[in-house]
Amino acid sequence: MKKNLTGSTTDIISIPEAIQRTTNWREFMSANTKEGVDPRFIPKAVYISKTDIMEMAERFKDPTMVGARAYFTLDNPAEELEKNVITFCLVMVRSCEGKECGEDVLYLSGGGLKDGDDDDSGVYDFTQPCPSYCDPDSPLYDGRG
Predict the structure, then answer these.
(1) How do 123-124 and 86-96 pair as beta strands?
(2) How far apart are CA 87 and CA 102, in angstroms?
(3) Residue 100 dihedral angles phi and psi, to the nearest 5°
(4) DSSP code for 42
(5) What are phi and psi of 138, to 5 degrees?
(6) What is the C-alpha to C-alpha distance for residues 12 and 139, in angstroms, rounded to an integer?
(7) Along the 145 residues of the chain, how does pLDDT read in single tens digits?
(8) How far is C-alpha 89 from the geometric centre of its chain's CA atoms?
């Protein structure tokens, strides 16, 4: 069965379910993080500005673009946990014959970087992770409802 890459992936869930899922994530990360790591730095969320979303959306005027894919990233090797920030990078996805899940658009024609660099990367890193860009009063942040 062929996947519908252009259909909506939105699934609205209840607040209690969202709190449970984010609690499950925090508990999983706590259980798999070295002892002594400040719990504020256990990855909970990333913030993406509207401006960044709209700029990326401009590139979707190309009808072959069907979505975006997010890859989790670490700034440093895993053993350097104290220095690491977990974020994700976004890459546009285009429909592609023979690839049921589409293909990542890693290169853009005409250059992809804002500063005029010749790099033609289509990979975006505009995420701002917790705790700097999180709402510490949200029940999704700490599970308190």
Answers:
(1) antiparallel
(2) 23
(3) -60, -30
(4) S
(5) -75, 140
(6) 17
(7) 567 777 776 778 888 888 898 888 888 888 888 787 777 777 788 888 788 888 888 877 888 888 888 888 877 776 766 666 777 888 888 888 898 889 998 887 654 445 545 567 788 776 677 777 788 888 888 887 5
(8) 6
* Rounded-to-integer distance, Cα 53 and Cα 106, Å: 17
Contacts of 118 (CB under 8 A, 6+ apart): 111
Retrieve residue 83's tokens. 């220095």
- Continuous segment of H or E residues that includes residue 16: helix 15-31
Q: Cis link prior to 131 (omega < 30° from 0)?
A: yes
pTM, to two decimals: 0.67
Report how far apart, in Å, the C-alpha atoms of 5 and of each of 95, 110, 139 are.
Answer: 7, 26, 32
Q: Which residue has the tokens 């023979």?
A: 98
